[in-house]
Design goal:
Layout (H helix, E strand, L loop, with lengths): L1 H19 L2 E5 L3 E10 L3 E10 L5 E8 L6 E5 L10 E8 L10 E8 L7 E2 L3 E4 L1
């Protein structure tokens, strides 16, 4: 019986491993959340997840198409703002405007603070390779 349970647990772990690789936690001083890729193409992705504001300021997600051997492409804003201190659903899509030869290797996000009349501050990038 114990052997059967171990085999079942190992099988479940292997089955869930690919799904775990498609999710990433993202944070900055102003907000935090998580995103997961729902679909992707050669140079684009769509994602969904959650986001909350740590400070009550407006925050949003910036999307990044990630290349291993090429300059990453930033899509800027891919989600609406939130000021909620509770997690709300946020996500969007990011696509390279002018196609380039290499295929993308993954998705990336930053949590950014929306500051009227000033450059928006963003946290460090989180990458999610597919």
């Amino acid at each position: 019986m114990k052997k059967l349970l171990r085999v079942a647990a190992l099988t479940l772990g292997v089955a869930l491993a690919p799904a775990a690789a498609y999710a990433g936690n993202v944070s900055s001083n102003d907000g935090n959340g998580s995103q997961r890729v729902t679909s992707h193409g050669d140079q684009s992705f769509s994602s969904t997840g959650n986001l909350r504001s740590n400070t009550g300021n407006k925050v949003y997600y910036r999307g990044i198409v990630v290349y291993n051997n090429y300059t990453d492409y930033t899509c800027d804003r891919i989600s609406d703002n939130t000021t909620s201190s509770s997690y709300v659903t946020r996500g969007g899509s990011c696509s390279q405007v002018v196609p380039i030869p290499p295929s993308a290797d993954g998705a990336g996000w930053k949590v950014c603070r929306d500051r009227t009349g000033l450059p928006d501050g963003c946290g460090s990038q989180d990458n999610d390779y597919w």
